[in-house]
Amino acid sequence: MPDPSGLRFVSPAMRILENEHRYLSFLMGEWHAIVLSFEQDDPLSLEESRRRVKELRRLILDFKVPLAKHTLKEEAHFFPLLGTYIGFEQGPLVGIQQEHAEIDGYLGHFLHHTEGDIDLLPLSKIASAVRDAGEAFEVLTVHFVKEETVIFPMAEGQLSEPDTRRLYSRMNTLITQ
């Protein structure tokens, strides 16, 4: 019988990460809707573009807080433990960790190019910055799928019961502000 919560994983530690992915995906949906509004056929006015990029910036700044807490949990506790089972030099952990840096880069680039007085930004700079936010969304979406279809099942299948309990105790913290 399927879990009524809709969660796929049995391990409490993996359920924490899966729940965090759901929360982060919800937040991403809020700011991605603004990104998509820039990709519509009807171009936005400069004034409307500036208004939307201000909101996008606010949402991304808010998003970065729980994302950073989630990423820190993975990098400080989950990946090192799983790496003792599957190795650190090659394989899925290497690519997943590189994606963390890529995501941070896209979000950082967006924030860098939208800091200061947004009312002075030309439409071309706004469009370029918004593309970075869109790239971050795409990488994050694929990243979560990879973790949930490869990394998390691998951990459930390989981690010992004592390691699973220890991991849960370290990761059982909130990522919300």
Give a concise summary.
It is built from 5 helices and no strands. The chain has helices spanning 12-38, 46-86, 92-113, 123-158, 161-171. The longest helix has 41 residues, at 46-86.
Description:
This protein has 177 residues and is an all-alpha fold. The protein is 77% helix and 0% strand. It is built from five helices and no strands. Helix 1 packs antiparallel against helix 2 (46-86), helix 1 packs antiparallel against helix 4 (123-158) and helix 2 packs parallel to helix 4 (123-158). It is elongated. The mean pLDDT is 92.
Beta fraction? under 5%
Mean pLDDT over the full residue set: 92
Number of strands: 0
| Range of helix content | over 70%
Shape: elongated
Unreliable segments of 5+ consecutive residues:
none
Query: Which structural class best describes the helix and strand composition?
Result: mainly alpha
Q: Please give the radius of gyration in angstroms.
A: 18 Å
Please report the distance between the alpha carbons of the first and last residues: 34 Å
Largest sheet: none
In DSSP terms (H or I, runs of 4 or more residues), the helix count works out at 5
Element string (H = helix, E = strand): HHHHH
